[in-house]
Amino acid sequence: MGIRIGVDVGGTFTDFLVKDDEGGTRVYKASTTPGDPTIGFFNGLEKAATSDGQSLEEWLRRVETIVHGTTITTNAVLTGEGAVTGFVTTAGFRDMLNMRRGIKEKQFENYAPPPQLVPRRRIAAARERVSSEGEIVAPLNESDIRSAAEQFRAQGVEAVAVSYLWSFRNDRHERRTKEILEQELPGVYVSLSTDVLPQIRAYERHSTTVLNSYVGPVLSRYLSRLQQRLHDLGFGGTLLIMQSNGGVMSPEVAQRFASNTLLSGPAGAPQAGIHYGAVHGFRNLITVDMGGTSFDVALIRNGLPSVTTEGSIGGHRVASPILDIHTVGSGGGSIAWIDAGGLLNVGPKSAGAVPGPACYGRGGVLPTVTDANYVLGYLDSAGDELTLDGGAAQEAIAKHIAQPLQVGVVDAAFGIYQVVNADMAAAISVASVQRGYDPREFVLVVAGGIGPLHAGAIARDLEIPLILIPRESSVFCAAGMLISDLKHDYVHTYAREFEAVDLDAVAQIYREISEKAMNTLEAENVSTRKVVLEYSADLRYVGQFNEVEVPAFPGGTFTSAALEELESAFHRRHDDLYGYSTPGSPIEIINLRVSARGLTEKPTVELVGARGTDSSAARTGSRKAWFNGAFSETPVYDGLRLFHGNIVFGPAIVVQPTTTILVPPDFELTCDAANNYLMHRKGSDLKALVGRLTEEVAA
Amino acid sequence: MNMATGVTDVDPIKVSVISSRLDAISKEIGQTMLRTSRSPIFSEARDFVTGIFDHRLRLLAQTAYIPVLMGALPFALESIAKEYAGDISEGDVFILNDPYRGNNHPPDITIAKPVFAEGAVQFWAVSKGHHADVGGGGVVGYNPAAHTVWEECVRIPPAKLLEKGKRNKSLWDFILINVRMPWLVEADLECQIGACTIGERSLRSLIRKYGLPVLHSAADHILDASERQTRAALRAVPNGVYRAESFIDHDGVDKARKIGVRLALTVSDEAVHFDWSDSDPQAIGYVNSTLANTVSASFQALFMTVCSEVKYNEGALRALSVEAKEGSILNAREPAPVTCCTVAAAQTIIETTWLALAQAVPERVYAGWGRWLAPATMGFNPRTQRPFGDIHFMGKAGAGATHGLDGWDHIGPSVTAGGLRAPDPELHELINPYTVLRYEYWPDSAGPGRWRGGIGAVCRWRVDADGIMAVNFGGGVNEETRPYGLEGGHRAPVSKVLVHRRDGQVENIDTETFFALNKGDEVEIYETGGGGYGDPLTRDRAQVADDIADGLVSVAEARRVYGWHPNAVSATANEAA
User: Which sign, positive or negative, has the C-alpha torsion A490, A496, A501, A504?
Assistant: First the structure.
């Protein structure tokens, strides 16, 4: 196997994880270049090549796969710099996209609504109508499409989205519209709802399709530039693009379904968690990634990450399946403040990278989580590129927190530490308890440079018994991308009551979408042997307005027994999620789904032999850190000199070049066979814990 | 610190932590309701609230999608707790809908579950939501012909729906036999109980973690903090007595009589007193308000403006007081009918409060939001072979403009504050015997201003079944009740509901009116926009040009009210270039 690289473009840094041909792993970071992210991309590759003593061209020739997570589409939406987009929809329903179902998220506050993706003047109404049963009740008025095209041309439209009412029951009008638009507007990017999301709920379908067109040209241009440059440098391997659903796809598919990258930023994390957990056989994990401005939580159950169709970006709905990653505004840069009632709050405002925390000395004057960590002695300048300014941290906390609360500076810093921990614990609770799961049955996998400073406190709060900290925790998402499968999700609305289900019709729909999936994966050079198809269905009690997704027809056996099993699986899942079920009442099937994966080669994890529990060789010194209401001299260890079997007893601090781990006094940390760390409460037996946590969670 | 109650002191950090946990639990209860309810009124439109109370019946945290319900929760719980004092056991679940026993109006059924620890009630998880039917002679609860509350609903006093965890069979049977869609009502009661149970589960784990003394002491601190926040916010309003008056369109019985709602709002230092005593006497028809609803709407008007940053709990309300004369339209005497109070009365209360506040702090106040005007309908759907009942939430009005911002388009009436989710027309067609023909913005419906009102909507649908009963309710059909402008901003037009009969006749349906629908009829709602703020002649010309290009303001209207001369803009543009 050649070199494999994960490249994750973040807000501040672009992370690189390089797995070389001998199984070695290296981490690089380059500054992100927002104007043209390809610059940062190639700067990082250059660094890696140089450290191998090769030119970029020589080195790239050895590279087999590059998996790339890009936020170019995310940023285009958030900054309003997507393509000039036109929208064609059913006459009489021109404004559903911009109505956004009439919701104001923060009801009591007075603020402007989110900027529109497409202003009304670029929304064309086409006379046509398909009934709820899929019959054409009013034929498509083709002259409406031609005049829309003429108008779009005059408006300089670069991309068009088409979404009609009930088009998932009959796609003829959308297909014909596309033909006309392609004749009239050659070179313009066109998306149909029937390709992007053939699913009931018009606003959600419109919005997802429009987003696809809005970012399609942006992603296409970016990927063409990137591929050209890679080609010029002699790269002959495979480039894969990260998606919001946790899978990867080819650049060709990405260009057609650009909206699938909108929420891909944190989507590498669950796969990374699964990978690191697999070493011990853990299949139930909660991954948390604490960055500068946000904290991302994902839940993995029986080896599968949770999926949601309730995503949104910039106030616009993305209804395609994405990994269910719950994000809150808690990060190292989160600013602490006192509200009008006198209570301490942390975030969601962040000092970001610029001006940054006060201790960065880049002009920040407001107290942040990083400042608190510094004052408490948890974080130190040593090992960082940055020299931290302790005086500035003290001053910011004293002025904005300690004095108003009339407490000491250290107490105030510890307050910030506790409040941000509580917010993060609450976020984990939302991702687990609120979805019907008990966090005590999960392993907490911690990522981000400072995530491991907070992990112990969070785990204690939620009674999570075991923490796994990967050695490469600071480039966690890049690591996850490298081991992601190709993955494509398909949906088709069926919408029938359970008693009226026509098994043949259901099987037919499943076969059609499976075929679509197989064709796509084949075009991506996946051999049939490597394809895994998973079937599921969205069900609800008749009258409900929200569905529950349940696995269906395992192995593609469309029997009445499998249909019955689907029904009882729904009742069970409903009970899990919401505390009750009513097996007597009628249910209905709304959507049929297929998730198709093309399995990729996974790098093997090299396990090393145990070297005994003694960790004293890694001890580098000590510093004062705040535990149990006092500063005490706390041992400091060099993480890179800890080996399999070594145990570090808290209180202790383990330092690595891009990560610091805090081992609280009531915890101990063990280096495992893959050179990652397991941390748990003193007095709990690690072996027994590992044994218990590798069991399957009852369905 | 708190000597009066003699409770344990807790540090301010822990208070912050517990406060955010309580908010999260209240949201959890709300999410469960949203996801599992069966009536579209609950789950699509989100017409419900949830809350957590402590053992002293103080509201600690709430989640309101429809805020006009939230101020009514404490009244309902107090009534339940008083009625059953000394007779509350673990596993009990209480129900209440009677408006004269603490509930705001009959369709919003209150469900309350006590949370026990150490052998006593420590907290309450409460939910309240609008049910698909509560019996009576109306449509989805709305009966504009009612002269008493008995014609509106089956009255449920505080009662035990579950006793020590066991269903009180006779009560369930009694309720379900008195409603039209028993399977929907039963499932939604289950959903409310399930949501409270989820809340109970999380509250118990909070008790395990912190212990009761810490939690109860933290509650004191949280409420005190909110009180300080409210008082700080109120400091921005100059002291004085501000008076205003608005009108409810009519009560459905005497359609010629508009009903006056009058307020003397006294701001003194850091407190606010609402005195509604000068309002008209109670009406015969169902627009009368209960005190719970009057208090709730009054507070909402403040929380949407000067108190928008304050957390809504018992502490936040300490600085506020409300007075309404018994026997008046805003504090009706039993057994007057009251179902329409959360709409007709509440939106009038909110407008009147804003008009009073506008004399003190106009830059903090909204121009008028379009009032609710749309029908509820009920009948049998031959396609699904089931009865159905729904409220037509697609007709959503525009919000009023404020200093600096246009109003939000298609947002719904002020009582919902933007929390009402418009139904999906496709799902709507699956359940109801209707085909939606048109659903889009209504051009020229926004009140002009330097900042214009939000745009209203037109919704038209065809009826595909016979024998459907409908009630039009809300208001905003009269000259006096269309959305007002502020500081030189203009009013928005009146709303209207038309029925295009199969034979070509067109009927303009008044508010608070029964009507029948049959196959082939088409209903068309014109839901108005919001009022404008500031002189429209001073509106940014680029914004006027945008509205014209988007077809939201016609050129004729632009010339008439915005002083629009197309050449003037190109002249300005040329100068700029």
Answer: negative
